[in-house]
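Note to self: keep these together.
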Amino acid sequence: MQVRITTLSENTAGGIGLLAEWGLSILVETEDLKVLLDTGTSISVPHNAALLGVDLAQIDKIVLSHGHQDHTGGLREVLTKTGEVEVIAHPDIFAAKYVRILEQERYAGIPFSREELEALGASFNLSREPVWIADDMVTTGEIPMATEYEQIDPNLYVKEGEELVPDPLWDDQALIINADQGLVVILGCAHRGIINTLYHARELTGVELVHTVVGGTHLIRASEERVLLTAAALKELGVQRLGVSHCTGMPAAMMLAQEFGDIFFFNNAGTRITVP
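Structure:
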């Protein structure tokens, strides 16, 4: 089975005319399915899709990795192109999420109501458990915290009543494809840890080898020790292709590039790869 991966939105852009926008959106195509993971922050996905020859009306499913605006803010624009489509997400996708920067809180959640999105054609499938999209494609559902060195960003909060409390990011999830060469894992932000996510993907599918990892790794504020522990775990998992995006951060990306050499790449808007 061939898997085609096209990044439609990311912090940086790799082609003339493509828009760069803080956030992420990745299209995954197999012979039978076209699944969009996340929708960027605002207008970049439809704009870049048109330039890349991607017809958003052909998308079969949308998966939202979590409820932050930089992954869901483009959903309204995308829905104007897709029309009626199933949107797979965690029930916490509509939680009131905030980020604290320099002692000030800013709303960081999905900027639309469920009713507005449903009126545009979204049919929400909200589940805490993995959702099998096909026999060889599944969402992770909730991801256990298994490693000692991966923690959730302490600057992220959710509003409960009138109080802001630390956000456990239970809605953080990834998309798994069981390809012939091993698992292909598409990450949104990996708030609950890239290695935790990959360990969960192996347990969920029963497949040991993780062949390709693409997307956000949330190592942007990680210590050098954590990045090196992450690199060691990725090697142990057998990763043959590593494309980092968005919330990885340049220092961590440079360390991973040194560790992985030719199998590493920057996964920015316009990047297209196939597995195999």
